Request: fold
Amino acid sequence: MSRTSIILVALCLVASCSAVDESDAVITKYGSQINLDGSYSYEYGTSNNIQGQETGVGGSYAAGSVQYTAPDGQPIQLQYTADENGYQPRGDHLPTPPPIPDYILRALEYIESHPFTRVQLKK
Reply:
């Protein structure tokens, strides 16, 4: 066997050993409470370290979190709320928009300080 073949076989073995089979995961923790006033709460956990919890009131408000490990090994911690302002997730893994350039901010300030007078066209 060539040296390259040995390295390739070794890498395949390492990759197969590090792959985790999560099909056997089981629920290790579960709790749920629904109250007469429409409020509720639940929590769960699994043997493969997925954790979640949420509290809320009917269809008007919810807050919770989910924790797990991504396939690349990154720990994911997501917190969220959902209310009249919509779904608002928070987490270090979520993408963020780039900062607004200074020239755009200055242009917006100029537009705000110099309001446009509306012109009425004659019919």
Q: What stands out?
A: Strands lie at 27-34, 39-46, 51-57, 61-69, 75-83, 86-90.
